[in-house]
Give the backbone structure.
Amino acid sequence: MGLTRSLIEAMAPDQSALSAASALLKPAKWPVRARADSLIWGECQGSGANPYRVVADTADHGSKCTCPSRKFPCKHALALMWMYVDNAAAFQPGSIPDWVNDWMGRRRKGAAAPVSTSNDAKSLDVAAATLEARPLDPLAEARRKAASGKRALETRRSVRSATEDLDLWIEDQFRTGLAGFLGELSERCRRIAARLVDAKAAALASRVDEMPSRLLTLPNDGRIDAAIRELGKLALLTRAWRAQPDDPELRREVINSESRDDVLNNADAPRVRSTWEVLGEQITTRRDGLISQSTWLLNTNGGPQRFALLLDFFPASAGRRGGAFVAGESIDAELAFYPACAPLRAVIAARQDAEPGDGAWPAADADPITAHAAQLMAAPWRVETPVLLSAGRLVPEGKLHWWRSDTGIVAPLRTAPPLLGMGAAIDNAFGLWDGARLSLVAARTNWGRLAFDA
Amino acid sequence: MHDIDGSLSRMRDAWMAGQSARACCPEAWRALADSEAALAALAGVAHETLYRAAPAKPLEPRPLLPPLAAPTLPEETRARFRRIRATQKSSAPIEQELLHLIAARGFCVHPGDWMPGPRDDWAPDLYSPWLDWVRAEATAPHEEELTADTYETWSWGERRLALVRMRESNPSAALAIIEAKAATEPAERRLRLIEILAHKLSETDASFIETLLKDRSDRVAGLARAFLARLGKGDNAEAPEAELADMVELGKTGLINRRTHIAFKPLKTGPQNARRLELLNLVSLAGLARALKASEMQLVEAPPAGEWGAIQAFVNQVALSGSDEVVRTLAGHVVESADLLRCAPVLAQRLSLEERRTLLERILAHDAGGLSVTLAFMGRDLGVAALDAVLASPAFAQVTHCLDTALSKTDNAQPAHGNALLATHLNHLGLILDARGARDLVAKLAERGLSPADPKLDVLYLNAALTTEPQS
């Protein structure tokens, strides 16, 4: 049985899901909509930095979305099917992408959403009408703003107290000896992180909580210097925030990030339209139960070297999530950068059809790792700097693997590269330098593109 | 700089021990820093900007991974290859067969998608330069031919390949090199060198092979015995042969066309059965024939019968020590019987490519075990079966049964193993069929209701794409 409006109404978990789906029916929110055989799929720009990938089978009505919603089908899947029913011609015939194939391989046949037989009032027409008729109440809006301002003030007071506690904690680690600190790294960091969470310094808490995983991947002899660096950066960050609590970048590092809409509506957020190559994606499970998804982009339209980071978090309980992009693909997009001394994190403001270009990477600096020193001058609390590396080789030596440029600049790698990395001539590479170790993400080599599990 | 270096080291020591670093920090920092944390911030920035780890020795990159003689998989098929490998956890592994299929079609995989491990001797020959690279064996360009004098300058993979080719064009030259150099190789490689002599084995090789009977490796000595037996030069110790002859029966079968027929009836006790198996492994076919006062050919005039373990051992005996003609005759019987079919792969290693392809259709007609016997029989020569032969096979009937069962399910009750079984069957068909057959089979399965986007069709799609012939 093919898809129909009544079938979508029956599959929807509730009326609110349909209402939310109706807000996603604008074609501008869907840079990709395509179909092949009974499959339809699309990419929807949701509230995250990375777009959600949605696929549905019009034959058996199964669907999948990369959003973290617990509702099934989620609003994105409902919107995709709704748009298809209303105007199938808007879906371009295309070849099935890998991520759709992956879903086809994993799914259980027949695992479509249960069709409700109850008399719950669920209606696409009502959902569409609700959206149009939603009135704005100026009084309620004023009350909301006042409450929000009050909450912000309380948060600031609470966070100030927590950062002072963190300073004391850092001093304690030095006073009691870093040997003991490294011996009880996880426990000690977890305790102070919990204090920071209670005080609403969520971003700072995550950073402290993740410190053990960053330090413990290093060999023993490198941990003490790394611990000194990390503790020093934390101390700089807390002082900087107390001096300028309204600074958006510092607030992001200590409390939380602005929403996507805040960035898009911020006149100070720099916007850059370019052709961006997806360098790679890092998916990390954090100790607080969240999974961070980082997508690194590089402009390839011939302008100066510019990186962008699309960063999203979602709960690990939401299950495995497919990548938002394929490494190596190009997108023509306008990015809105979060305001910062050296803007890096961004959201996609608008996407256009990609125009084929030569895709060449910008020229790498003579010693790209000095870019890290420059970034430290602007934001000394940052942990990593994205760097573009010139031609070179990867070389094993001792217990480490090294990147060596053709001009003789060397840097130790954080993790061993794949075997091919040692046998390939690298034309260009992209990685993250943390002041001591280089985490490679992607390289262009004589064997083509090479991805690293950074 | 030197002062900072010393200061940072002393500060580190102080903090490790829980002491203040204020006394040992650079003079200028004392005025700037009001706490240990502030000193740590300064020390951290100094570390990150002034120092960078340096290797203990000058870095010596490994040689570049050499390109192979074959082109890499077309870019559009690489993702499919990766996906097939990734799904191996949920179905029977087919990595080796897949690589053989790709090699048989004249392609190699991209090293970013797969590279051999140092022990992957099974890898198709074209990957030999990568095996050498993975094993860090020197590979230098060779303008001169492989000889006993230049042997050491060639990597193991290169010299083995060169000897295989030389054995085809100039068997005595290959023999001379193997004779001169086999003793210098370790046992495993010595065995691989001696195995090369199996091709075009002749009387000329006999004197060298006789010297291997006392090799310190049992496997090499065993191979030498088998080679000599094929040449009709087995040892003449009659005792075990006579003992074995007492444990088999030679009779006649057929009403009109009377043929000699060997039978292995169950013996009275387990130890007796075990002894018979031991003797079948020990005695050559020629020796058994001699003891039974028959010719080798008479022993295989009709399919062997009787106890299954003994039949298997007998087929092994023929594969090891029978002449080419005897092996061909027995293979002809084996592929005609669903019961004996499991023995076919043992004989395949003695058959030429053409002989195996000739028997393929008959094997397909009897292989009801999901084509696993067919795959083993064809070895590296995959992707050659015509669709008509496959459509008439029991394997295809199994596929359609699995597919119909899967499509008839409308709820979540479909067992996972049913899907896995269908995936395994389709994978095997994808390895067996020729490119045109693979493409046409996808269309047929789609007509039956399987979604063309179903990843279970990946091997068939990959097969269909691996052709340089125009697609009509």
Observations:
- The first strand of chain B starts at residue 249 and ends at 253.
- Strands of chain B lie at 249-253, 259-264, 305-306.
- Chain B touches chain A through 57 residues (CB under 8 Å).
- The two ends of chain B are 73 Å apart (CA to CA).
